[in-house]
Amino acid sequence: xxxxxxxxxxxxxxxxxxxxxxxxxxxxxxKNTQRAKxxxxxxxxxxxxxxxxxxxxxxxxxxxxxxxxxxxxPEQQQKAVPPLVIFVSFSMPDLSLKTWIKTARSLQAPVVxxxxxxxxxxxxxxxxxxxxQEDIGGVSLNPIAFDQFxxxxxxxxxxxxxxxxxxxQQKADEAxxxxxxxxxxxxxxxxxxxxxxxxxxxxQQLLEKLASEQHV
Length: 216
Prior knowledge:
Layout: H1 3-20, H2 23-68, E1 79-81, E2 84-87, H3 94-106, E3 111-113, H4 121-131, E4 139-141, H5 143-148, E5 156-160, E6 164-166, E7 177-181, H6 186-196, H7 200-214
Parallel strand pairs: 2-3, 3-4
Antiparallel strand pairs: 1-6, 2-5, 5-7
């Protein structure tokens, strides 16, 4: 029987004995009550201590498990680079921007800008809607990509030789991609890469895809 049950039974017995006037029995019952109370307190403390130990064990186990898992910092996470990336700027003529956005869309290639117009998202989105016929898809703000490929002027056409993944702080190896600068056609840029570039094979595949899209 638990300590709390002893206490309740003892209090009931005290009540009965008071009505009957048995002083000796009352004294004995009070002593039993005190002993029951002490036993109950000991049991409660034991249970509380056990609970604390279980909680500490669970916390320590969780900590050890988390320590086993490698911590991947955001700057260490790598992302795959598309085979074709077009770098542009709002300083370019609108006609040129429209042409590159349309061409890139035919090959599902991203068009990348370094910054916003007057540091305003609202102005930038409004401009993109005008250039892209109310569709702002396919154009992304990514100044990190400019640094990864060392792009210092636009337009720039980048073709990656093979599957390439980069972290935000990682520079692309010059041997892993080709870049053509100037407001030329994508067809011209790809042919130049096929002639004397590192990304000949990928440039050839993109050129074939571009030709098939133009004949659709």
